[in-house]
Structure formats: C-alpha cells, structure tokens
Amino acid sequence: MSEAGYTSEAEVNTREAIGSGSTETAGASSVRAVEALDSVVIRFVGDSGDGMQLTGSEFSKAVAKAGHGFATHPDYPSEIRAPTGTLFGVSGYQIQYGSRQVFTSGDAPDALVAMNPAALKTNLADVKHGGIIIANTGAFADTNLAKAGYTSNPLEDGSLDGYRLFKIDISALTAAALRDSGLSKKEVGRCKNYFALGLMLCLYGRPIEDEIADIYEKFAKKPEFADANVNALRAGFAYADAAEIFAATYQVREAAAKPGIYRSITGNHAAALGFVAASESSGVELFLGSYPITPATDILHELSALKHFNVTTYQAEDEIAGICSTIGAAYGGALGLTTTSGPGMALKTEAMGLAVMLELPLVIVNVQRGGPSTGLPTKIEQSDLLQAIYGRNGECPIPVIAARSPADCFDCAIEAFRIAVKYMTPVILLTDGGIANAAEPWRIPDVATLPKVEVSYRTDPEGFQPYARDENLARAWVRPGTPGMEHRVGGLEKDFLSGNISHDPLNHQRMVDVRAAKVAGTAQDIPPTTVEGPASGDLLVIGWGSTYGTIAQAREKAEAEGRSVAHVHLRHLNPLPPDLGELLGRYKTVLVPELNMGQLSKLLRERYLRDVVPLNKVQGKPFKVSEVHDRILELS
Amino acid sequence: MNDMSSPVALTKKDFESNQDVRWCPGCGDYAILAQIQKLLPTLGIPRENFAFISGIGCSSRFPYYMETYGMHSIHGRAPAIASGLKLARPDLSVWVVTGDGDALAIGGNHFIHAMRRNVDLKVILLNNRIYGLTKGQYSPTSEMGKKTKSTPLGSIDRPFSPVALALGAGATFVARSVDTDLPHLSSVLARAAAHKGTAFVEILQNCIVFNDGAYSTLTDKATRDDARVILEDGKPLVFGKARDRGIRLRGMEPEVVTLGEGGVAESELVVHDEKAAHSGLAFFLSQFDTPDLPVPLGVFRSVRKDSYDELNAQLHADTRAKKGDGRLADLLQGGETWTIG
Questions:
Q1: Residues B27, B38, B240, CA angle at the centre, nearest 5°?
Q2: Last residue of a domain, one of A417, A449, A481
Q3: Nearest CA to CA, how far is A586 from chain B (Å)?
C-alpha cells in the first residue's frame, strides 16, 4: 500500500508461530527467552468505562514509535457508559502490528486482555486456539459472572484449557500499587487500564519511558492522577517482568518501511487534513457545515480547531442545515464541505439535488455505518453505495469516490475537491466506521508534491451566460460581489444558457443529458486501473473502500500458495474507471467482497453485463482475511 | 439619495430584473418587491454585493425579479443557505425572502436557529396565512376554524405568531408591517437594513386568490386605525382614528383605555422601548390581536448584539494572533511522529 509507504512484498503470514505452536521456554527462569515474531494481534476488551480505547491506542503509539507497521480496529458500543459488567457494554480495541506492511487489524487475536467476564464471553470465540488470555480475576466475581451469563467461573472450570490463560488480579494489584495515592477507591479503579498497558508493554518488549512522559503531559493539570497512572503502569510492567508466569516475552521484528517521517493517523483525521490541504492548494477558504453524528464527528472536531487556517466550521442545527449552509458557502466561492453518516445522508438528499441543479462544487462525506435507520452507529458497513450513486429524486448524477484505508482518506479528500471544482459538481466521498476511527502509520507527504486543486472564478462579464460550459461541461463559478454578472440560480430547471427558469420539454432533456455527460466525463481523469497480481487469469477480486487491506492480504496469501488471483480496488465508483470493462474480461471469474448485500456486484453486472460472484457480510464487523482467502481458494 | 461612496448612483430600475413577474394580479407581493427595489439603491451598497436567497412558495419567487445575485433554493432552507453564504462572504448584504409555510412549517427549525444565532441576515417573511402555490391549504399562521382545501370542516390547528416566535428565539431585531401601508413598510425595511445581526420583518400580505381580505380590518380605511397600533420608540401606545385610545397596564394585563376628558392621562400608558434589555415588553406586545387589542405594527425590538459573523471573524483573528498563520506542513507533521531510514 503506497499510502502507508511500506514495501509491497508479500507478507508471509507467520502468525501460526505466535500462538500455541511457539516454543515456550520450559519452566520459568530469571532469563526468559525472547521470542521473535513477524506480526501479532492483540485485543484489549473491558467495560466501556474501563478505558480500553485508551489502552489500545497507547499501545499502538508505543509500537508505532518502534517503526512497526500496524492497523487497528476500535469496537465500542453506542452507549457512552453502558451498565457495568453487561455483554452489550463491552468495548474493545484490536491492533495488529508487524515487521512488514500490516493491512488489517487481524483476524484472530493472539492475545486477549479481558477486564471482566462479559468481555471474555463476547470475545473468546475470536481468539486463536491456543492464544494468550489475560483475565482480570478481580472482576470475575459472582455478580459479574451472572451478568455475563456464566453459570460457573470460566477461569476455574477448565473451559479455557485450549488457551494459555494468565489469571491476574489486575484490580487488586492496581489497588495495592496505589495504596498511598490518596485517591478514592473509584479513582483507583480507573487506573486499571494503565496496569494492563504496562503488563502488555513488558510482554511485547516495549519500553515505558515514553508512555510515562505522555501521562505526565496528558494529566498535567491533575498531578495526582498522573502519579497514580504512572504507578499503575510501572506496577503492571514490573509485575510482568518479575512474575514468572510469562514464559517468554515477545519481540516483534522491526518493520522495513520506506524512509520518511511517519505519524499514526485515523481516517477521520486524515480526511480533515486532506481538506485543509485542498484549501491551501487552491488558496480558497474551506467551509464545513456539519451536524454531529457517529462515526463522522471527528472530522468536525479536527477542523474546528484550525481557525488559524483558512477554515470555517459551522455546527448547524440539523443535517439539512449542514449541507445547506455548505451550499451557501459554495455559492459564495468557498470550498464547501459537509460530513455525515448514513441517516444524515438521507436527510441531505434534497439539498444534494439542489447542488446538482446549481452546479456548485461541494464535497459530501459519508462515514458509513450499519443501517438501515439508526442501525449500528458504531459498527462498520458499506451499505450506502447505491444510496450515494442513485439515492435522489430525478436524474441526479453525482461522482462518488471511496477511501480504502485511514491514510487514503487524506488523498481522497483532495481528490474529491479536485473533481468538484474542475467539474462544478457535488462529489460524495465514502469512508466507513472501520477506517474512520482506525489508525495506521502514515508517511507524511511533502506538501510540494500534493495534487493541485485549482480554482478560478469568472469575473469577465463579456458574453457571460450563467450556464454556458467549458470543455469539461463545467459552468463558470461566479461569486456574488462580481460586478456586472448578477444572475439568479435555483432548483427549478434552468435554461441551457441563461439559467433562467425553463419548462421547455427539449431544454429539460438537454439539461438532463448534459448533467449526466458532465459526471460521466469525470472519468477522463481516472488513472489506469492498478492490478495487484496477474494481468489475466483465473480470478479477479474487486473491492472498494475499507476492505482493501483484507483483500490484499488474502490475495497475497493465496498467491504465495500458488493460486492465480488478481486484485483491483476501486477508488472511483461513479463513474467507474474507463478500462474496467476490458479488465474484467481478462479473468474467468470475478469475486466481489463487500460489507453489504451485493451493491457493487449489482453495479458491475448492470454496467458490464457479466456475472460476478458476490461475497457479502453485514455483521457490523470487517471481513476476516480467512473469509476472503477461503473464497479465493474455492474459486481459483 | 445615494451614499457618497457609491461610485454610480443606482435607482430602483437598476434592481429590476428582466424576468416577467408571475404573481397573481393584485397580489400584495408586488408592493413589497417595489419597496425593496426602492430601498436598496439608498443603502450605499454596490448592486453586486446583494444576494437574495429564498425557499419555495409564492414569496420565494422574489429573487428572480431582483437584478442582484440570487438563489431560489429548496423549501424552508433559505436561512441555512443564507447563513453559510454570509459566513463565507461577510462582505455581502444577504437577504432571505420567505413565507409563512416556508419559514414556519417546513423551515421552522432553520428559522428559529437563524434568529438565535444572530447572523447578519435580513429575513423578510411575507405572511398571507395560507399556502398559495399549492392552491390553498391552511398554514401555521392560519386562524383556528379556518376552512381551506385541507380543512374543509375548519382548522383545529392553533396558529403561532411569527413575531412571538422570533422574539422567543432571541432575535435582536423584530418588526411587523403590512403590504398596503407603503410609507410604514418602507421605514421598517430601512430600519431592518440598517440593523447589524439578524433582522426579522413580518409583512402581513394579502393573497388575493386564496385568502383575500385576511387583513382587511388592519388595512381598510374605515377600521384600520382602531385595529392597529403603530409602535414608536419612547412613545406611549396610542391609537384610534382620533388618537384617543391607548394601552394601559393593569397588573400584568393590558387594557384599552380612552384618553382625555373623563378618560385617563397619556402618562398612564405603556411606553414602547425597542431597546429594553429584557424582551418581555416586545413579547407582551406580540400577543396583541384583534378584536380585544390592536395589532402592533412597527419595530418591536432592536438591540445591538455581536453578530455570529462578527464573532466568527474575531475567533479567527484571535486564533491567528495566538498561533500565527497556520502552515500546512506543520499541521501534517503535528502530533507524535517517528522517523524511519
């Protein structure tokens, strides 16, 4: 994946060596073996109030600093503080990191840190057979066991015999470490996650000094909490270091990444930076009109802190006002941006039609989540593709692009505005809850090499017709305030040149045709499609959006096993790349994995009149590599 | 007439577009259009700096007839679009023209939030108490019991007062006028244009086809002087053909009294105060309605508060002063980074 800057050589999946099959040093000794691994998958799970998101993201930072490739998957409930100990209140954070490029957060965890019985119960099925389970025994009291639906304690009844179970009373050990902290029992309880973090940093061979500095920075205003968290962290680290239960610690080999400066970035953060880059590149103000909605809101958070840039953010009264204020700003000459998720997208529909009619540049971001209706607000799904392409009244074409990874959101944000201003059209950018909140390493680009977003406003009144078009069928962008060019626009059908209201039948036909031709014409800029794998053969896997990493990893694995399988990942979904039809013809079978019920499959069949094999999943979870890999093996 | 700084003296004609006006003959909208076309050249603002934004409905055809920048948008959303435009372009004079259905039914949410935020917009609501463009259904301002195509047995929907709603939402400028009283309309519109912040003007407007005569008691020469009270800042509430009637407070209740001989002294009457710190008086006045009390026309409230666009500009200036101008390269390299190779 060039965005992350990692070498593209196939990752040899060696995770089998990490779990039960790895050689443990028999018996504990003061000098423990250090086991070298190529990649590892760790999942932290606990109550939504246990701070697992923090533990996970701090662990990610620690491995990032070591230069590892990584990918994360936060998985949290939509309740802010669900009742403690319940199954639905479990919050998790999974990270895969490794010595090479890491495509996904991993299928099956090699290690699970479970802070309570509910967390164990809801996550056990995913853990690799023979994997490590670290359970906080302090939370495995009868009431919590009952809330999780256990009739006997799984830590004692032998049901975990197939795993390497480490029973650690994290609650009591944290309390003991903080005996003199002066904090209340409740406050001490909140430090458990740092104990767990210290434990895991030791187990996976990462130092804690940076983390300590980080805690002091984070809690600068509350030194007593800083001290407590640091003590908990140290206690966890020391416990793992001294206790003889861990036979070996695990050191992941250093990553071989492309030289450069890196940072960890989530999809929403990357998108926000990309939009600022588009504004800086064009020299035009960025205006974001938005209404808070999970999982898109972080884009609003990021941009609202950037008032020293040419960025205005406007938290509107509703989704409709979010896009309408953006249309107003675009009419005024700004780069108009609105961000939302599925239900908000539905509310913005009429205004999108207006933007199509007005032929104003606009970017609409849909960070997709599980639907329909309120659906699964915090879970991943790709089921808004057809809504993005077709979901409006009338013949209402809008270009649609999709980001494939957290870092790719940066490039897609710039691409969305490039299309919008060149063709004077709204553009929809699809991301999803998976990549929006997940992080990966991002090689920070040189500003000078970023794609240009070029804006020019027409100021010459000579021969001006509001709906006259250039060679790309784009009309001129004329800002109010430009002398001698006063004119009216609106949602009623326009005359082909003057833009005045027209109910003429042939004019309507002509306008519908030209709006369609304009959007179709954006395909002229789509670069030749990149094919990973053979240029022709048995099987082509086509995906879009956040499934990129999973498909890439599954393909590489199958290829290493001698299968003929290629992978195309689409960024441009409307229009589709001009060379795609010819490309499809070069493979016997086309497999289309999607986190929906077959929306891209439908589009491909309709457009190219050839059958494809759908692979669909709507469980609020990403594909596992094995799910795609298994299907590849069946078809190649 | 024109501001000295305006390079070319503009006239009403300069603000008339070449589009045929398509309101019904006799519609009150004509008078309102003419008054605004007359007003704009007097404001000292270059013509290209005006933008008129409307939603859907008869009143929302307004921008087509103005030789300014304009947008005829979608139903109810004009305040949201106008807010975005004004924030992106504080240099423009942005006007919203809307109706009782557009602003108060489908666009009610945008309306109250525009009033609350105090973005520097001029919001002109043409209230004919009926849906005209869809041919005669009752609106949120139609009176109880009204028989329309969608209420053949009479409406059971309680109406609300646009002025009370705007005041309740915290508007800093709220006024009411009527389409047939041109001098009054003209003066109220001029006051609105001069206000910094959201200026809201309700214009009682006659729909000759679907709701003719809705305001006849307020507009007919025979009845109007007893049916309305003209608000003047600092002046007592006096009305009536002979200007011999007034409004006095009894506790918290208003009462109509007769002035002069045998009656009460003018000094006992309620004195209007547009700039009162508290909007209570304005809200009190907004509740007046015939037949018990005269309908107030004029400026209910006019207070200067920082407008949203001013505060937004200040926020940007303060942030730049504190952090310096943002640099993209620094932003991209922000947070924790690590170097490889």
A1: 65
A2: A449
A3: 39
Would the CB atoms of B110 and A324 count as touching at under 8 Å?
yes
Structure tokens at B113: 């939030």
Write down which residue in A403, A428, A449 finishes a domain. A449
Whether residues A206 and A300 share a domain: the answer is: no
CATH number, domain containing residue A551: 3.40.50.920
Q: Touching check for A445 and chain B: CB below 8 Å?
A: yes
Shared domain for A162 and A272, answered yes or no, is no
Answer yes or no: do A317 and B80 touch at CB < 8 A.
yes
Terminal CA-CA length for chain B: 72
Mutate to test the interface with B, among A68, A287, A317, A414 (most CBs of B within 10 A): A317
Which ipTM did the prediction report?
A: 0.96
Interface test with chain A among B8, B68, B115, B338, by most A beta carbons within 10 Å: B338
User: Could you tell me if A328 and A240 lie in one domain?
Assistant: no
Please give the tally of structural domains in chain A. 3
- Are A90 and A220 in a shared domain? yes
CATH number of the domain to which A172 belongs: 3.40.920.10
Contact at CB, B340 and A481, closer than 8 angstroms: no
Contact map slice: B 112-141 vs A, CB within 8 A: 113
CB within 8 A of A31, min separation 6: which ones?
Answer: none
Q: Which structural domain, as residue segments, surrounds residue B106?
A: 12-231+277-283+294-312
pLDDT tens figures, B144-167: 999 999 999 999 999 999 999 999
Domain enclosing residue A541, as ranges: 537-635
- Cβ separation of A260 and B336 shorter than 8 Å? no
Total count of domains within chain B: 1
Report the alpha-carbon angle A49-A55-A61, nearest 5. 150
Residue A504 inside a domain? The answer is no
For residue B280, give every residue at least 6 positions away whose Cβ sits within 8 Å of its Cβ, in sequence order, or none.
none
Q: Is some CB atom of chain B closer than 8 A to the CB atom of A327?
A: yes
Check A488 against B338: CB less than 8 A apart: no
- The edge-to-edge listing of strands for the beta sheet with B173-178 is A488-490, B69-72, B50-54, B93-99, B121-127, B199-204, B173-178, B295-302, B228-230
Measured between CA atoms, the residue of chain A closest to residue B323 is A308
What are the chain A neighbours of B333 within 8 Å (beta carbons)? 261, 263, 444
The answer to whether position A474 is within a domain reads: no
Q: Are strands B295-302 and B173-178 parallel, antiparallel or unpaired?
A: antiparallel
Interchain pair A277, B328: CB under 8 A = yes
Mean pLDDT of B175-197: 97
Q: What is the pTM of this model?
A: 0.88
| CATH number of the domain residue B197 falls in | 3.40.50.970
Beta bridge partners of residue A252, listed in sequence order? A37
Task: Tell me the pLDDT tens digit for each residue of B57-71.
Answer: 999 999 999 999 999
CATH number at residue A277: 3.40.50.970
Please state, as a whole number, how many other Cβ atoms lie within 10 Å of the Cβ of residue B305: 15
In this structure, the answer to whether residues A224 and A78 fall within a common structural domain is yes
User: What is the C-alpha separation between A253 and A249, in angstroms, rounded?
Assistant: 13
Same domain, A185 and A290: no
Do A366 and A441 sit in the same domain of this protein?
yes
Number of inter-chain CB pairs under 8 A, A vs B: 204
- What integer is the mean pLDDT of B34-61? 97
pLDDT bracket for residue A33 (50, 70, 90):
low
C-alpha–C-alpha distance, residues A546 and A548, integer Å: 5
Of B64, B84, B320, the CB nearest to A287: B84
Choose the mutation target among A7, A304, A309, A414 for the interface with B, i.e. most B CBs under 10 Å: A309
